[in-house]
Design brief:
Layout lengths: L17 H9 L3 H6 L4 H7 L3 H31 L9
Helix pairs in contact: 1-4, 3-4
């Protein structure tokens, strides 16, 4: 019997995360943040001014948010591509 399914319900979603607004504000992409190998925690510790400490702390936080968002996006993508079917817009 031929497979006649036209659609499949996928119960995954992309959360509304503050990372996307923060990325837009910095003009950086998720990939750029994830590829940055700066030790932001070391930068927080070595900061000599409150402004430098705040900037390093924000960068550290952005990396954590980006990692979480990337994991979620990977899970959603995997769910959309189950059983060899692809979702194309």
């Amino acid at each position: 019997m031929a497979d006649t399914r036209r659609a499949q319900l996928v119960t995954v979603a992309i959360s509304d995360s503050e990372v996307f607004g923060r990325l837009a504000a910095t003009g950086r992409t998720l990939d750029e943040v994830l590829a940055d190998d700066t030790d932001h925690m070391a930068a927080v510790r070595s900061a000599t001014t409150p402004e430098a400490r705040l900037a390093a702390s924000r960068a550290f936080s952005l990396v954590g948010l980006a990692e979480s968002a990337a994991e979620e996006l990977d899970l959603v993508w995997a769910a959309l591509n189950t059983k060899g079917t692809a979702c194309c817009l």
